[in-house]
Amino acid sequence: MSRPERSVFVCAQQRPPGHPRGCCAAQGSQAVLQAFWKELQTRNAHEKVAVTYSGCLGPCEGGVNVVVFPDSVLYSRVTVEDVPEIFEKHLMGGEVVARLAASAGTW
Questions:
Q1: CA distances from 103 to 5, 35, 73, 99 (A)
Q2: 80-102: per-residue pLDDT in tens?
Q3: pLDDT for position 61
Q4: In a domain, 101, yes or no
């Protein structure tokens, strides 16, 4: 397997219900992760993209959070419906999806 061009990390942090910071898992991160894996399989993009889960990425109030490296782009409030757009535009095309990108002060 060759080194992928981009790596995607989906926050899967879990915290107890009522925790003051909240968590991405409670906001649907498992479904978002599954959607990324599905896109990866459907596009057979294993040589270009790696997808994995991660612990907390920081701005919990903006979850589900997703980070793309080596571009260092943090996407916030990602839903399953957003995944095909992120995959097509950013992961395959190199174009940041501005409407989902966290502001510079967020991360």
A1: 24, 24, 10, 10
A2: 999 999 999 999 999 999 999 99
A3: 79
A4: no
**Cα–Cα dist 49/35, whole Å:** 14
- What range does the domain containing 85 cover? 6-92
What domain count does the chain have? 1
One-letter amino acid for residue 56 of the chain: C
The torsion defined by the Cα of 104, 94, 34 and 22, in degrees rounded to 10, comes to: 0
Q: Residue type for 107, please?
A: W
Q: What is the pLDDT of residue 24?
A: 87
Residue-wise pLDDT for 12-36, tens only, equals: 988 888 888 888 888 999 999 999 9
How many residues are given for the chain?
Answer: 107
Is 65 part of a structural domain of the chain? yes
Question: Does any domain span residue 107?
Answer: no
Q: With CA atoms as reference, report the closest residue to 94 among 42, 47, 49, 58.
A: 49
Count helices and strands (H / E) in the chain: 2, 4
Give yes or no for residue 107 having a pLDDT over 80: no
Q: Is residue 24 part of a domain?
A: yes
